[in-house]
Amino acid sequence: PLIAPVEKGRVPVSWHIIPLYSAENAPVKFVFKEGSSEFWCGVQVRNHRYPITKLEYLNKDGEFVEVPRRNYNFFESREYGAGPFTFRITDIYGHVIIEENIPLVLDEIVDGENQFPY
Questions:
Q1: Structural domain includes residue 4
Q2: Are strands 41-46 and 96-102 parallel, antiparallel or unpaired?
Q3: Does 44 fall in a domain?
Q4: How far apart are CA 29 and CA 23, in angstroms?
Q5: Most buried among 53, 56, 72, 84, by the most CB within 10 A?
Q6: Which helix (H) or strand (E) element contains residue 15?
Q7: How far apart are CA 86 and CA 69, in angstroms?
Q8: Within a domain: residue 92?
Q9: 43 pLDDT exceeds 90?
Q10: What is the mean pLDDT of residues 29-47?
Q11: CB-CB contact of 52 with 91 (8 Å)
Q12: What is the pTM of this model?
């Protein structure tokens, strides 16, 4: 369906972000990219209430390090290590959750324990 007749050309459109309501009573989830290992790893965060702006992991020195996001929505790095991981995730509203003890598991969805607030 079109939002306006084609003859109108470009038309103004407005939109707003709505929360993922299926995340109401469920935590965020993690999927590790095929081929992930202690030497290279890609992780995707799923079931988050609002869009994510940043994912960081806790390195061996106890510092959070921001991980680059690829255009196919995986956060990839050669620096993660073998896990288990501690991730700090920030949404578009600045809410921050920390997920600890996330194991590197392939071919499964790993449940976190937290969800972004409304």
A1: no
A2: unpaired
A3: yes
A4: 10
A5: 56
A6: none
A7: 17
A8: yes
A9: yes
A10: 97
A11: yes
A12: 0.88
